[in-house]
Amino acid sequence: MSRLRVVLLAVLICPGGLAATEPLEQLRTAALQDDRAWELVASLTSEIGPRPAGSLNDRRAVAWAVDRMERLGFENVRAEPVVVPHWEAGTTSVEIVTPGPQELHATALGGSVGTTDAGIEAEVIEVADQAALEAADPATIEGKIVFVNHRMERRKDGSDYGNVVKARGSAAWVVAEKGGLAVVIRSVGTGPHRFPHTGGMRRREGQYPPIPAAALAVPDADILEYQLRGGSAVRLRLRMTSRRLPDAVSANVIGEIVGRERPDEVVLLAAHLDSWGLGTGAVDDGAGCAIVMAAAKLVAELPERPKRTLRVLLTANEEFGLTGARAYAEAYADSMEKHYLALESDFGAGRVWRFDRRFGATGEALAHRMLSALSELGVADGPNDATGGPDLSPLRTFLVPVVELQQDGTYYFDYHHTADDTLDKVDPEALRQNVAAFALVAFLAAEADETLRPIPAYPPRKR
């Protein structure tokens, strides 16, 4: 029996005590005692494991999500097919050949080509960041392996990620255009351990860069940096077996709690089902899948179902290009005006600490009610400039109102896209607090009478 059912049974048995408990308090109390989110993320990561787009485990994860949503009693459960890119990381070997020979811990970047069996051996040239690479004279890069040595800062909100990740996305293109043979980057991460961080590279006209690209674990990037500071030429040997395969079919998985009064209006709770192949995808984004499923289920267990429909969306291939998110936006373009609010969980399972949103002026009263409910969980007020997260980015064109429940990301980038992204990194207590926060916001949005549109315009995209 769920914790919420226990609470509701107590209401009936003890009308003088819990009978006056409001739905918000019922949700908060139940969520902080409910371990369904933990059970879901444990099942996904232990029974399915890593879920790279297009892989067998990706297909198994889709079947898992449909099964779990049906077991939880969601309505209109479906898997909507999405064609996704399919790439295998293979093995990666990076060695310093001279002056101080040693093996470095590295992994292929998403979409990288492999090398020949003999590999690539060449002198290394170091650049500080993507901007320095773009400004570099091609004559200094031609025939060399380029090392992009951009160190990421640890921040609670993870805000330095956007600065550092540019090289992961685009460095290989620039190096190739300037005649370089390969690129290695300092991992886009903050962890001190020898776990390299992978991540997708940008495609151009459907193609990935034509040269090999890899990421060094943070301590190994330090080793290479030190040797380069010695003044002698440093040579690297790079061997990679990564390969690109034909596109494959995955799916967005959707389940709903149909609204009692406004079933055509949607409160969307999103996360992504895929992961990289190094770890088991617990932090990114198994926890998010579990949070949104458990939060919607708790709202469904209240005595009265919500006015609006709660729709849980687990997207395909977020990691490799937001394919599922784009497919969802295209498939539901005609009903986007009926999307009342969207929120996403894709930043691990650290405690929610701030409430950001993007509402129109008429949504201030709802924002106040949400903040009041969230404050009981230790959540502070944030700005009205939220963007909604990666999988909600295709909805910006439709000016859908969004909430961002900012999670504590102090240590998120220690594990992000590494072999260390495993279930033990998820704190059950923090996970319950997340479920409570998402359930409260989803319930209040589903019941609200305010109009949230038009929202403030998004700033122009930076090129």
Task: Describe, in plain words, how this protein is organized in 3D.
- The chain has 463 residues and is an alpha/beta fold.
- 33% of the residues lie in helices and 24% in strands.
- The chain contains 13 helices and 16 strands.
- The strands form two sheets. An eight-stranded mixed sheet has the order 1-10-12-11-13-16-14-15, sandwiched between helices. The protein has an eight-stranded mixed sheet with strand order 3-2-9-5-6-7-8-4.
- The longest helix has 20 residues, at 428-447.
Approximate helicity band = 25-40%
The number of helical runs is 13
Q: How many strand units?
A: 16
Question: Order of strands in the sheet with the most strands?
Answer: 1-10-12-11-13-16-14-15
Considering the chains and any ligands shown, give keywords for the structure.
alpha/beta, eight-stranded mixed β-sheet, 13 helices, 16 strands
Describe the protein's topology.
Elements: H1 3-13, H2 23-31, H3 36-48, H4 56-71, E1 75-88, E2 92-98, E3 102-104, E4 106-108, E5 120-127, H5 130-135, H6 138-141, E6 145-148, H7 161-177, E7 182-186, E8 213-216, H8 218-229, E9 235-240, E10 243-257, E11 262-272, H9 282-300, E12 308-315, H10 323-331, E13 339-344, E14 352-358, H11 364-375, E15 380-381, E16 402-407, H12 412-415, H13 428-447
Parallel strand pairs: 5-6, 6-7, 7-8, 11-12, 11-13, 13-16, 14-15
Antiparallel strand pairs: 1-10, 2-3, 2-9, 4-8, 5-9, 10-12, 14-16
Helix pairs in contact: 1-2, 2-13, 3-9, 9-13, 11-13
How would you summarize this macromolecular structure in one to three sentences?
The protein is an alpha/beta fold. Helix content is 33%, strand content 24%.
